[in-house]
Amino acid sequence: MKKMTEAGSLLEKAVSGRRLSLEEGVRIYRECDLLQLGRTADLIRRRIHPRKIVTFIIDRNINYTNVCVSKCKFCAFCREEDHPGAYVISKDVLYEKIEETLEAGGTAVMIQGGMHPGLGLDFFLDMLRSIKERYDIHIHSFSPPEVAHMAGLSGLPTGEVIKRLREAGLDSIPGGGAEILVDRVRRLVSPHKVSWQQWMEVMLEAHRQGMSTTATMMFGHVESVEERILHMIRVRDAQDQTGGFSAFIPWSFQPGNTSLGGRASTGVEYLKTLAVSRILLDNVKNIQASWVTQGAKLAQVALSFGANDFGSTMLEENVVRAAGVTYRVPLDEIIRSIRDAGFRPAQRTTLYKVVREF
């Protein structure tokens, strides 16, 4: 009982606006029950977002290739370059996907892919320029591992690569490839990918150049609770430096069809992790629910556990689907889910500007 009282006092501390430490974050995760964490996260959410609005974006994920040298153990999407199912997207297909997005009321595309050994920086600069010449759309693309891969192939510093991508039309950078920002974990699940420091340096450099980015966390595989919380603290520390993260998006590892295997996180584990992220990340304004991995019903519950954003309509999604998870949530169901949870739905842009309320 004493432990619960002491941990409860940490929740009161967070509600009052005082910051919790790494050790305190671990403690509330371990010692507080689900409803305690949910109530606390909801109170903090209401303070940061006093209007009862939950946002979402209409956009599309476009994977320009499934060829990747990283071979992460949690990925069921990537292929070898000589695999019969390997591909690099053609411009005609890319343009068709963008036009479908715009016709559906979309405002952005998130273009990502594997780290293809044969696609140099010029390929991406040409892609960006050709899109911007044809379409008025926000390009939220190329995760830090992809940017680092471009830098490695080109021999240019990361800052110069980001500068050239920006000049060609890149508007913001998604938080993919973060997994868990602890190198012990990364060596086990993605040994050929960038270190956590390299991931963060891409983000900090993008922020220094005036770009907004998001931060993600894929949890529920080989990390400890302490490492999961440390990930959040490292995002918070970076945000203190630059303020460039527009949102934090925790999502649970999907083991289907992967070499890593294991079990999927429970709904309780997802909600606890989401709530603790809202409690700890006092300097990141937006926390996004993940219906892609959890489904609409649990994402709806997440709106009372600290989330203020329902994510994307995702007119297309291939990576999580490759792991055997095929949740689809049409626009009208997103709107209905938000309303039924007691909130007002609002479409937003990538940079969280409200386009229209429903």
Q: Could you explain the architecture of this structure?
A:
By secondary structure, this protein is α/β, with parallel strands linked by helices. It has a single domain (35-357), classed as Aldolase class I (TIM Barrel, Alpha-Beta Barrel), CATH 3.20.20. The chain has 15 helices and 11 strands. It has helices at 2-15, 22-31, 34-48, 91-103, 121-134, 144-154, 158-168, 183-189, 196-208, 225-242, 267-280, 291-294, 296-302, 319-322, 331-340; strands at residues 53-57, 59-63, 108-112, 138-139, 172-173, 212-219, 245-252, 286-287, 309-312, 344-348, 354-357. Strands 9-1-10-11 form a 4-stranded mixed beta sheet. The longest helix has 18 residues, at 225-242. The termini are far apart. 48% of the residues are buried. Mean pLDDT is 91; it is low at 319-327.
Note the topology.
Layout: H1 2-15, H2 22-31, H3 34-48, E1 53-57, E2 59-63, H4 91-103, E3 108-112, H5 121-134, E4 138-139, H6 144-154, H7 158-168, E5 172-173, H8 183-189, H9 196-208, E6 212-219, H10 225-242, E7 245-252, H11 267-280, E8 286-287, H12 291-294, H13 296-302, E9 309-312, H14 319-322, H15 331-340, E10 344-348, E11 354-357
Q: What is the name of the CATH topology?
A: TIM Barrel
* Number of helices, counting only DSSP H or I runs of 4 residues or more: 15
Beta-strand percentage range: 5-15%
What top-tier CATH class fits best? Answer: Alpha Beta
Secondary structure class reads alpha/beta
Mean of residue pLDDT values:
91
Shape designation: globular
Note the main sheet.
4 strands, mixed
Q: Tell me the helix content.
A: 40-55%
The overall number of domains is 1
Q: Radius of gyration, Cα only, in angstroms?
A: 20 Å
What is the topology, as strand order, of the major beta sheet? 9-1-10-11
Q: What is the CATH homology-level superfamily?
A: Aldolase class I
What would you say the CATH architecture is?
A: Alpha-Beta Barrel
Quick one: how many beta strands? 11
* Helix-strand topology string: HHHEEHEHEHHEHHEHEHEHHEHHEE
